[in-house]
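Sample A.
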Amino acid sequence: MSLQNASIKLTHFIIGGFDTVKRPVAVGVVMLITYLLAVTGSLVNIIFIVSDKQLHKPMYLLICNLAVVDILYTSSSTPTMIRVLLAGVNTISYVECLIQMCVFQLGGIMELFSLTIMAFDRLIAIIYPLRYHSYLTNTRIMVLTYILWIVASNLVAVLPAIVVPLPHCSLRLRYAFCDAAAVIRTTCVDAEKFFNLGAILSFFLFFFTFTFICLSYCVILFFVKLSSNNDRRKMGSTLVSHLICVICLYCPMFVIGILTRFGVVLSLEERQGLLIGTILGPSLVNPLVYCLRTKEIKNKIIKIFRKVNTIFRKVNTAG
């Protein structure tokens, strides 16, 4: 029997990734709270940067771009997982699934690109502090960011071109949402060759972006040795903020995308946990790191809290 004859006509998928979860409501509530905190933190960064002209500088534009990417990345799949866990709705239409798959991959690639361009920004700022604003203007940063979005979109456009023509033999997704691996596993073809192709593409993305980030760190550390103690503290703070974001994103991505192709075996629960951590971890950590460790944004938050506190005191006094 040919694959085409054995295939079924798809209108929807059944999400089976949480079938073995013993306390779906508890897990769903934790994910919902984490998701709301992540989106709120990113929105706060965006609102502060867009509304304050003093923050219309290359570094803050990149932080704003990262916040947009975080919202896109976590919102691509988390609402679906929360819906399955809390409402028990475990079906998703075929078209919606394909859109989710592409948006999720776009968000993941842009996370890598965003952290890389932010490393480049800090590298130029530390090596050429006096000429930084002449080298990296707002216009150049915007153009560079647009280029990265276009490149990422073109890479993602390959996915539906590969998946849509394939015949499907199953409605059931093994994982918690519509990532590429889950959708390809429902097809009637040998999935390994597609996974190997994905691993090769992931390897090159990881290799080039991570290598660039590491080289920028090496150069920055070299300049740190030649700097005064005060400059060392500023550079160290910059590195720590960026390093926290890099670790949260790259570690689980590297395990899922690369190590599993080299013999590392993960159970379904382990893979799901890493995947969810890859989605929610960076999206929660990034806005917190850049809110708390960026002086201008932190000062704005403190001023807002002081104003709110003053208003409450006046209300209580009047009462």
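Sample B, a different protein:
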Amino acid sequence: MAAVSDRVDLGAAWRSARPEPPPTRFHQVHGANIRVDPSGTRATRVESFAHGVCFSREPLAPGQVFLVEIEEKELGWCGHLRLGLTALDPATLAAVPEFSLPDLVSLGHTWVFAITRHHNRVPREDRPEAEALVPGRPPALLVEPYLCIEQFRIPRDRLVGRSRPGLYSHLLDQLYELNVLPPTARRSRLGVLFCPRPDGTADMHIVINGEDMGPSARGLPAAQPLYAVVDVFASTKSVRLVQLEYGLPSLQTLCRLVIQKSVVHRLAIDGLHLPKGLKDFCKYE
């Protein structure tokens, strides 16, 4: 198994523990073409490419990630998922706009980011974009168990979407060993959160498969309730919510971290003497 130097830092996990926010759910107010399942955790656009705007049921807490996984795609449309925040209470809207961009944004107090297959990272003065692309440097999601965004430290494990490997994936897919999905692919995980600043404002951050894309909007009113906005737009047809662990990682998560560090790639997990449920959790979840 993993060497001593690879052990999970339980002390760091304890120091970073904070109260668990309530589970995220979709608001009952949404676009005309959206259907939300009875659990409030899955939103599907049933026709057309528009009228797919959804909101979080409750305002987000500072540092709380509203995380969705892309479940279904639909061919024939141009455009992808859009994420953001709004200080507008969805319950007070006379009608949900057809589009988040530009319709909802034009109502004011709303900030939305359009996800693309490439170029989602916002350049930062203190960390140039090119720095994250140095050849030979392993992606942070492989070596750092926590994602640090300003004053918040979030367990990275469930932030990362994982593809379902085929028999020859390890030979044919260059991204297989790193397990990095394109932002707009099925099973990709995308989230939005806000981080308060000392001047009373907040920065909005977009997280894609465990990586912070930087502050995509600044100057948000941190003192006002901020709801998540998810626009199930165009080629994105259905998304589901993913719940995160903000306090101590579960024993299941800690076991997976150790197991993943001891294998070359995910197919090797099949050869371990472990229960099938744990193997599947290590490979896919």
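Observation for Sample B: The domain at 26-120+150-243 is CATH 2.60.120.920 (Jelly Rolls).
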